[in-house]
């Protein structure tokens, strides 16, 4: 009986450790792909060896650390086009705040994959060209403070 109790305790603590150390690997890879494929002037503490949910600047995960739900990186000196197939892979993302950077090029259409967005903040960047027409995919979007960015789109189409 004593041995069984010891094994049960080991199993319980092992399970608890796995639950607390879990992290969203796919989201981590998407953000690493983003940061490795865009020019930026600020050094972020994003390292594949550290916990995305506990250590990465501007990243917030849900309560059980299974998904990234917010990326807040305003004024980080990002330059150029948002790399395709990066941020659009964050399937549980609710808030994307990347205002006041130097993003350019077309609006990244893979952001339309972010079906859970409630807040989108991309103002004060240099996007060019037409906006995608179908914003109805963002059914939960309550706050889109992107007016200056969207005005640029509308004037340039």
UniProtKB/TrEMBL annotation:
Keywords: Kinase, Leucine-rich repeat, Receptor, Repeat, Signal, Transferase. This is Inactive receptor kinase. InterPro entries: At_inactive_RLKs, Leu-rich_rpt, LRR_dom_sf, LRR_N_plant-typ. The keyword Kinase applies. Residues 1-22 form the signal peptide. GO terms for molecular function: kinase activity. PANTHER family: OS05G0588300 PROTEIN, PROTEIN KINASE DOMAIN-CONTAINING PROTEIN. Residues 26-62 form the Leucine-rich repeat-containing N-terminal plant-type domain.
């Amino acid at each position: 009986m004593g041995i069984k109790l010891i094994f049960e305790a080991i199993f319980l603590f092992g399970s608890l450790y796995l639950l607390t150390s879990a992290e969203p690997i796919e989201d981590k890879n998407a953000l690493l792909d983003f940061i490795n494929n865009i020019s930026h002037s600020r050094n972020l503490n994003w390292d594949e060896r550290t916990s995305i949910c506990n250590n990465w600047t501007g990243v917030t995960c849900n309560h059980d650390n299974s998904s990234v739900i917010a990326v807040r990186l305003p004024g980080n000196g990002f330059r150029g086009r948002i790399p395709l197939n990066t941020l659009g892979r964050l399937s549980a993302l609710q808030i994307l705040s990347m205002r006041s950077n130097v993003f350019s090029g077309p609006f990244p259409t893979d952001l339309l994959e972010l079906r859970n967005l409630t807040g989108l903040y991309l103002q004060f960047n240099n996007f060019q060209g037409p906006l995608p027409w179908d914003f109805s995919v963002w059914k939960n979007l309550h706050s889109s403070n992107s007016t200056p960015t969207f005005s640029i789109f509308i004037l340039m189409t």
